[in-house]
Each structure stands twice: as C-alpha cells, then as structure tokens.
Amino acid sequence: MHAQPAINYIHQLSIDCVIFGYQDKQLKVLVPKLDFRGDFWALPSGYILQDEGIDEAARRILEERTGLRAIYLEQFRVFGNAHRSNRDFMDRLLRQNEARMIERGLDRQALEWVTRRFVSIGYYALVDINKVIPQKNHIDESIEWYPIGQLPTLIMDHHDMVTHALDTLRLHLDEHLLAFNLLPETFTMKELQELYEAIFDKPFARNNFQKKMLDMNVLERLEKKFTGAANKAPYLYRWQRPERALIS
Amino acid sequence: MHAQPAINYIHQLSIDCVIFGYQDKQLKVLVPKLDFRGDFWALPSGYILQDEGIDEAARRILEERTGLRAIYLEQFRVFGNAHRSNRDFMDRLLRQNEARMIERGLDRQALEWVTRRFVSIGYYALVDINKVIPQKNHIDESIEWYPIGQLPTLIMDHHDMVTHALDTLRLHLDEHLLAFNLLPETFTMKELQELYEAIFDKPFARNNFQKKMLDMNVLERLEKKFTGAANKAPYLYRWQRPERALIS
DNA sequence: TCAAAAGTGTTAAACATACACCCATGC
DNA sequence: GCATGGGTGTATGTTTAACACTTTTGA
Q: How is residue A82 annotated by DSSP?
C-alpha cells in the first residue's frame, strides 16, 4: 500500500515483499504499519517504473525499507485473484480516513490509482537482520520485525503471501544454499541449526545436522569461539562463497 | 502476441502459455505462427480482463487455443526484464508489416498498446494431446505441435519461458502427480515410462520404474491389453483419482 | 571431578540402483 | 521351442535417521 501518482509506473501491477530476518532464535518478517486510522498492517510494497525490470523494482523497494542493496531476493508467486483487493479492506480504510486523505493532498486521481484492482508479484528477501535499519515509508506509522508465528493481522491476501514465501524458502534453502544470507559473517554450528529449526519449525538431530552441513562442503572452519561457558568452545564457521548467495 | 484494443484489459500485463502435450514418444509444445511477414513464432498469449483473475484469464486463453476447459495449468514465473520486449523483434515485425497492419484496421492506439513494454506471467498447461483440436487465433497463420527439442525460433524471451516451464514440470511431476494429465484415460506401464523418458530426456530402468510407480499407490490395474504382438500382454492402468490432477 | 555442550563415530533402517529370473504370447 | 517384451524378486550400494561415545571447558 503505497500511495503514489500513477504517472511513471506500470498500472495495476505491484510488488509485495516478504523480508525475512533471523533474531533470538526466531524467523521474523519486516512489516510496516500504515499511518491510517484502523490498524492496517501491510507487507512492504511498491510499483514498477516504466524503464525498470521487476527484479530491479523489487531491489529498489527493498533498499528503501532496509537500507541494503546487496540482499538475496527472488520472486515466488503472482497474486492475481479478481477480488484480491478485498473491497472490505479498502472500504474500511477509506471510511475511516477520508479527512486524512484530503489533508495529505491525495486527489481523486491518486485515490483512483490506489483503489483499482491490482495484480501483485510476490518477492521474498533474506537479510542479515543486524545490518538492517528499518526505514519508515512516508505512508507508514511504524515498521517492525515480527516473529513469523506472531504476525499482526495483515491486509488483503498478505498472510497468504507470507505462507507461500515460507514454503518457497523451505524448498530452496538447501538447494540454493540460502541460510547464510540470514546469518552474520561467522556463526557456530548450533546457531546454524537453530536457524534451520526456526525456519522449518521442527527440531533436528544435532550430530546428523552437523554431518549434513559439513558434507555440503561450503563451510569453512575458523578458530574456536570462547564463550566463557562451562563447556567445550564451539568452532566458528564461515560460508566459503558468500558472493554466490546474492545471485538471484 | 495478441493485437487487441486496450479497453477492457489490464495494461502492460500479459499471460504466455507453454502448453505441453505428448505424442509419438515425444514431449511437444503447442506453438502458433503469427500471420505476419517474417516468420514469427510466439507462445499462445493473451491479456487479463479487469474483472478476471489471472488463473481464469489463463484458462480462457488456453480454452481458445485447445478447446479444452478442464486442463491442468499452473503459473511458473513472471518475466519482467525492462527490455524483454526486444526492440529488435518489434522493429522487424513493424518494418515488414506496415501495410498489413493498416489493412487490418490496426489504428495507432492498438499499435501503441501492443508495442509497449509488457510484464508477462508464464503459465504451463498439461493436456491429453488427443483431445485437443488446435485453434488458430485471428492473428495466427497456423498453430502446431512441435517436439520440445525441435522448436522453431521463438520471439523475445519465449525460449527462456519454455525452459523454465520444463524445469518446473520436471520438479513437480512426481510431487503433484502430473504425468496423468498428459496421457489418455488408460495406458500401459511402458507408455508411462516413455512419457517420463521424454520429459526428463533420459532412460529409466524398466523394473525400478514400475516399482516406483506402483509404490505411489495411485495406479489402478485394469484388464490386460491384447496388442497382438508376440509377447505377454501388458496391463492397462488408470489413475485412481484423475479429478485431483485438475486442481491448480 | 562433574555437568554441560561440542564434536565424532557406529549401527540400523530406508531408499535407490543393478542384476537375475519367470511368465505369457505368436510365430 | 523360442524370441520378444512384460512382470516380479533379490542383492547391492547409498543416503538418512538413531544411538553411543569422547572431548573440552568453567565451576
């Protein structure tokens, strides 16, 4: 939900982004709250410029919200039901915010633009949550990371989008070696395992997990990490070829 | 490539379909040839009506070309590079067909519509080739089934689309039990195997293939098929739940 | 010396692949 | 009978999951 004049954009086509991060043993999604009366949460979204590819557009939208340019992103599905705009949502928003709309100088043309039927391309992105400083949009009241199990009520079909994005992430995680995009430069095997457990929402056997990861031959073992805890110090690992993860 | 007035459609958004069929031990794709000078082949495509979901639109487009309504179809990717319209192709087409365009009553508005930058949603469809009577469009010179290895030169990024569609088909074939959509109601194990070999372009071990298929517990064994050949008569099989394959 | 967590090895089950054999059919 | 292709069973190797053991560290 981006109120923008129609001028330079492709009409009725939008991009919605599911931005995944990882923190406190939880998989999180970055969700802005719209600055309108009525508690509307919506996935970060935007439109496609006439001379811009869809991947570029998604990257631009993601950069706006995360400040990061080099992040993994990938389209996962198009959402184009005839009635996905969910008249309910739009009606509620407009009814409760008529005054505010006018006050912000949203003219009839802009209103017409934003309330038309939209087809939306879903992208998901993976970021190192520590590198992100979430950026409010001019239309946001706030923007926050929510654990995937505790998302606020999202508008329209945005919950569906998150579900599909998560399914795709799970499917591609090993195949495309994506996990490393969610972690800092170095990490312990336990941290990697906890990430997997957060993503798949199920426990993994510690020893078998380690074996599987090492067998991929993409982990470089560094020095040990002294935690100060009363146990053996774990090794730190780094992914051997971090640059490959960014190719989308 | 569909020359249509812009009026009822979403602008700059199209659907391109990779329609797979199976015949003579070959995986085939249904490809129309455009009725313009210069030998242009393009995947069946169309636009999305304002009150129509994208799946419905794809189904309508497929029905136009195949005459079939109940066929398996699924989106597989969006193609939206900034320069995918391939100026080359459009320039060539326009240069060679100026007179013809005018003669067909294509006015400036229609021309402007068709030459703008488009984002296209790729769908792939699976059909029983024997049930299809390929339908020419008003803009087609002809429409034919081509073996996937012997496609004519397609316009723009349509070869890319076929490649992506095939990749997706291979990925989902077992998972979603799709093979049966390409076969007639009943078939022998050998025919099923040959279909797999055509799709994956590699041989399978006969006995292991049979075991794998039977272990899926979706095949119903019918009476034997008397071929008249000098060997044991093979069983005929039918998929137990053909209706599930059509859910997209 | 002990608890806690890390690291490694060993075994069993499941699955995939390769090989061997028997069955039905028309000539 | 026998060549041909269909159907099934058995052995082998590979991957996956389950279990057991050893090592390091601070209290």
A: T
Q: Where do the domains of chain A lie? A: 9-172, 179-246
Q: Is the Cβ atom of B50 within 7 Å of strand C at any atom? A: no
Q: From the CA of A172, how many Å to the C1' of D14?
A: 23
Both tokens assigned to A205: 């056997």
CB-CB contact of B42 with B35 (8 Å): no
Per-residue confidence of chain A (248 residues) as pLDDT tens digits? 555 554 689 999 999 999 999 999 999 999 999 998 889 999 999 999 999 999 999 999 999 999 999 899 999 999 999 988 767 787 888 888 888 777 777 677 777 777 889 999 999 999 999 999 999 988 899 999 999 999 999 999 999 999 999 999 999 999 898 999 999 999 999 999 999 999 999 999 999 999 999 998 899 988 877 677 778 889 999 998 644 444 34
Cβ partners under 8 Å of residue A114, min gap 6: A1, A2, A3, A4
For chain B, give me the number of helices (H) and strands (E)?
A: 6, 9
Phi/psi for A117 (5° steps) reads -70, 135
Buried b (16+ CB within 10 A) or exposed e, B43-72: bbbbbbeeebbbbebbbebbeebbebeebb
CATH code that applies to domain B9-172: 3.90.79.10
Report residue A17 as tokens.
């982004």
DSSP assignment of A2-70, as one string?
----STTEEEEEEEEEEEEEEETTEEEEEEEEESSTT--B---EEEEETT--HHHHHHHHHHHHHS-SS
Find residues 7-36 of chain A whose CB sits inside 8 Å of chain B: 10-13
Query: ∠B121-B145-B162 over CA atoms, to 5°?
Result: 35
Helices (H) and strands (E) in chain A, counts: 7, 9
Q: Which residue of B has its CA nearest to A52?
A: B82
d(CA B115, CA B113): 6
- Report which of residues B113 and A86 the model is more confident about: B113
- H or E segment and range at residue A237: strand A235-239
Closest protein residue to D4 (Cα–C1') = B231
pTM over 0.85: yes
Decide if domain A179-246 falls under CATH 3.40.50.300: no
Nearest residue, CA→C1' of C26: B230
The Cα–Cα gap between A140 and A132 comes to 17
Search chain B and give the residue with CA nearest A13: B13
Report d(CA A67, CA A120) in Å as an integer.
23
A56–B contact, CB cutoff 8 A: yes
